[in-house]
Each structure stands twice: as C-alpha cells, then as structure tokens.
Amino acid sequence: MDTFKPSALLKNPHLQSILASTGPRKHWVKRQAKTLRETASQHILDCGDGIRLQGEYSTLPNNQQGLVILIHGWLGSNDSLYLLSAGSTLLAAGYNVFRLNLRDHGDSGHLNRELFNSTRITEVVNAVKAIQQQFPHTQNYLAGFSLGGNFSLRVAARAPANAITLNKVVAVCPVINPYKTNRNLNNGPFIYHQHFRNHWRQSLANKLQHFPEHGYQDILNKLPTLDAMNDYFVPHHTAYAEVDDYLNGYSIGGEHLSQLEIPCHILSSMDDPVIEAEDLQELPDHPQLTIELTRYGGHCGYIQGLTMDSWADQRILELFAESTSS
C-alpha cells in the first residue's frame, strides 16, 4: 500500500487530529458503523482481584477471519469515532471485533472503586485473556490508538507469559515517552489542553457520582491545568509519589519492548502534534517490531479526503490480512 497521501485541504496536522474524533466526520462514521453497533453485545470481563472491565463484541454469521480487540486512547471509549471507524471496516472485512473500554472509560465508571491510571497494565492483560477465552478464535489480533496503542504494545510484551495468543499487534500513534506527551499536551496548542483537561474533569466528576467517598470535588474545581491535576491525583490516587515516576511507569522506550515475541507494527506520523516522531528513536531495533512513519496524518487522523475515509483503517486491515495469509 502506498504511504498516506491526504488531499491538499487535509495536510494540516491539527485538522487531521481533530477530525479523527469530532467534527463533520461524526455523522458519516456513525452511519458507517450502524451494523457494528447493532450487532454489538455488551460484556463485563472478570480481570481478577475483583476488577471488572467492560466492552462490546460484534460479529456477523459468516465472519471467519478471526478476532480483533481494539483499545481506544486516553479519555476515549469503545464508541470513539476512530474505534467505530476501524471496527466497522474490520467487521465488514470478515473479522469479529471486541471494542474494550479501559477502566473508568465509556460507561464503566461504576465497575471499580479505584481510579484509572495509565500504569494499570495487569488488568488490561487479564481483560485481553478473558476476551480470548470467552470468544475463542484461531486468528487473534490487537490494535490500539494513542494511549491504547501504548497499552497494546505492553500487552504484546506480556502475552506469552500470560497464555495470550496474538498473530499481530498494530499501534497507531502510540504514546512512547509519556513525559514528553504530557509536556506537549500542557504546553502545545490550547485546544488539546482544553480538550483533555475538560474530559478528564468530567470523568473524575462522574467517578464521584458512583464513589463519593473519594471526596475530591472541591479540590478538582481548583485545579486549572493538566499539570495541576497530575500534581494532585498522582500522589493521592496512584502508587507513585512523584509525577515523573508515574509517567515513567508506562513508558515503552528503552528496553521495555526488547523481549517481544509477537509481530508488532507501529503506524505513526511525522507531524503528530502530541507524539513526537523522535520518540520512535527510543524504541529497540527488534525483528518483531516494525515502524511505519508517514509524512502526514496528525495524531490518529489519517483522513484521506472529503469522504472522511481513514487510511489507517485500511492499513490495519491490510496488515492483519498479511498476517492471516502468511
């Protein structure tokens, strides 16, 4: 497949990033995903130690290509536009699709008392294992976007030790260096900071409706920035005393992926305003890890033209099809 070549009107990285999850694409994707959503059944997954995660499984009678598990990005959900778009493309191509919600994402804030944080990898590993046990397939695939891409690669690294079978993993614009990503969200264009700050505040407020004993409402109202929110919530609601230690806790740079046994493919763009392309240099040179870097695409965008089709969806489909035929 040729590298991503958007129309001239869609080369702006911020427009690409925004269109991935909002704007005029919303109505087109929801029409496209009608079958995906109508065939979906909701499932609560037992992830051990009383932890439960939620997701939706979609299947069609003649779908024989295997199972694809999709993981959204931070503060997204199983109904994020990019997940609906990818999921509907895969379902139409003969794959069965499970769209997983991370803790506290989507409508799952009531399932677990403790708050989500990005270092909670064990429960995601256990969720993937539970999905495969509940919906056994010969061919199994995993794909994630942004923070979901980070989770997907960490799951891949832990898969053999946890009896998880994966034929291929694809990570679209994955978070590699959380410290730099956090800095970019705080210091970059205001629209990104505002988006994530507001959505995080909404998520935390929703959590209080289910678990008011956390009692942070008055404090939350006084935290104006993502940095200020991290400064409070990391020491009070994670196992880390310092924000930098927490951010390093879900980094995948250095040796974190050095023991990969599963083929992994990273799709990222040079103009991503959130994940810097130079972060890819922190990853190991490994035979099971392929990095595909495009000139354009923004952050999880890859919108090709005015039809609002996603090139990333077709690329994921192609990568999984190659694995199936090999």
TrEMBL record:
GO MF annotation: an example = monoacylglycerol lipase activity
What positions does the domain AB hydrolase-1 occupy? Answer: 67-161
Active site residues of this protein? 146, 272, 299
A Pfam short name: Abhydrolase_1
Q: Which SUPFAM superfamilies match?
A: alpha/beta-Hydrolases
Q: Which PANTHER family match?
A: ABHYDROLASE DOMAIN-CONTAINING PROTEIN, ALPHA_BETA HYDROLASE 1, ISOFORM A
The Swiss-Prot or TrEMBL record describes its family as follows:
Belongs to the AB hydrolase superfamily. AB hydrolase 4 family.
This chain belongs to which protein, by name? AB hydrolase-1 domain-containing protein
The species is Oceanicoccus sagamiensis
